């Protein structure tokens, strides 16, 4: 090993950590806000009067293993498309989303929400809920909805049956519009789906 390399590392081992104060502050903020990523941590440090580079905050949080993993691209996006698993209904709306007739055009989609629970030991656990709302395109009113811990066709069907019952007063043909995901391709859906 060259002498210069040895001396370089010798000095580095004996050196006092120049970021100790920042690390302690980041740990303190993290105790109260476990879901803060480096951007929100950077903003909080700025609010407390510490001038620091955003990349340095990111590097320190990576070093301390304080990265927030719940907002990765894979966990953030829910897609109901699984190919053709049943009958795909024709697109009757054809991007004509506006109407002045109540209960004529109804739209729906499955939305994923995340929530966190903290147990007695202070560990956070992430859970997911799936919302299936049916919205009137005339005024944006939510006619019916279903909430479940898993995306199921039964949840969609229950909300759909409620929407059919509520919109039965419409004198015109009703159209229920969706993204045609797997839950909307089930065989027991009504013919005007």
UniProtKB/TrEMBL annotation:
Any one GO BP annotation for this protein: DNA integration
Molecular function terms from GO: nucleic acid binding
TM helices/strands, residue ranges: none
Every Integrase catalytic domain range: 100-185
Residue span(s) of domain HTH-like: 20-72
Highest taxon in the source lineage: Bacteria
InterPro entries per the UniProt record, alphabetical: HTH-like_dom, Integrase_cat-core, RNaseH-like_sf, RNaseH_sf, Transposase_IS3/IS150/IS904
Role noted for this protein: Involved in the transposition of the insertion sequence.
Name of the protein: Helix-turn-helix protein
Lineage, opening ranks: Bacteria, Bacillati, Bacillota, Clostridia, Lachnospirales
